[in-house]
Amino acid sequence: MHLLPDDVLRHLPRRSLAASRCVCQSWRVIIDDRSLLATAALLPCTLRGIFVQIGVPTLSGFFARPSPAGTRRPPIPGFLDLDYLDTNEIEKSLLTIVDHCNGLILLDHHVVNPATRQWTRLPPYPPESPGSDIILDGYHALVFDPAMSPHYQVFLMPYVLRRATVSGQWPPSPLLLHVFSSRTEPEGSTWRWEERSFVREGNATMGTIDEVCSSSGWEPFDTYSVYFRGSLYVHCQNNCVIRITIANHRYRIIKLPGDFVGNQNISVDPYLGKSQEGVYYALVIGLCRLQIWFLKEYQSSYSSYSNSYCGGINGDGGGMETTTMDHEHEWVLKHDADLGPVLAAGYTLNDGGQQWIWHNIDTKKKNKESLVKEEEFEWNDSDDENGSAGEDRQYKGYISQVFGFHPFKEIVFLYDTDTRVVAYHYNRSKVQDLGVLQVRERVSRSFSYTPCWMPDLPGMHN
């Protein structure tokens, strides 16, 4: 396989070449080592900032470091004004961020690439049945991995209303979901939703309909989803995650660690996200006790994620053979600490140009960004002690929000006392200050943004 001549692969289109990386490890090594895929630099491989949704509905903002001097790329992603979308002023004022996945942003009715200012309008949502106890589009989840395919999907996950009168276990098997895929050919000029069926693996469910409806203390529309290695993980009702394996049309229910629903000491929404090794879950107990859990999964039979995914993003497997996977899983507690002493001791301050900046429409109109050197924004990964000793200081603040995980490092972003955003290096128990973020309304959602610079994704408009 390593003897495959370069000129055979060089004649392939870029998208076909990207798909060829999925065939096997040997092909991926050849393509990467010989720099055959010129679009590698366009993939989402760097953290640019954090999208923050303030209230519902309202236009969001972007919390990020200023752009380095001499950069050719725009200092702020093309999301703040959205003048390029096919929306009127009323629709524009109601736009909210629903999800983010590998550089694409999911809005209520659009999929947007802020880096390239390209977008797709989603088709009208499927109608609800009159008097139904199930909301078909209770949760919206975005699926996109440009390293494997240029196509993207949106999943509508059902939500059981509290007034439900139906009985039985939830969710049922098979579970019918509505999915939008950029791979699906539009009818005429109109995109459409398609219905897919997923069979449950294992015996676990979210509970009976009554149990799901009676779970309290949590607003289900402020949840998150994760797409990782061909599977979609969605935080759903009754403190559960539903994991959908797209290629083989199966799903599994995974109970989240800790008792968020019944624990009265938890006042901050938990955060399900993706980081260095896969799926992570952050939970804040009391004022400043932080738990970070990692989902460790096992496979009873060998299966190639690349083979099952490549060409199979629409769920048909692309004609390639897939192996049914029987996963077992466990939540591993990676970190459990009271951050009061750490925050009381102080943290590394990003003075001057190192401060991250809050960008929204108002600040975009009023302020001009400072241009500084790239190296001033590298993460502080030294072994030097951060901040002052401060052992006798008492921390009087609290963690008011989990803003998300760094996608490539053991870092979680926290909102400290509704004032400052900090990066907590939990493997070293050290805190780095990113800057001030003071907003009047409640923060409802936040997403670590990794820009994707690949142009002309299927179905995207300028």
UniProtKB/TrEMBL annotation:
Descriptive protein name: F-box domain-containing protein
Stored Pfam families: F-box
Organism encoding this protein: Oryza nivara
Sequence ranges assigned to domain F-box in this UniProt record: 8-36
Coiled-coil parts of chain: none
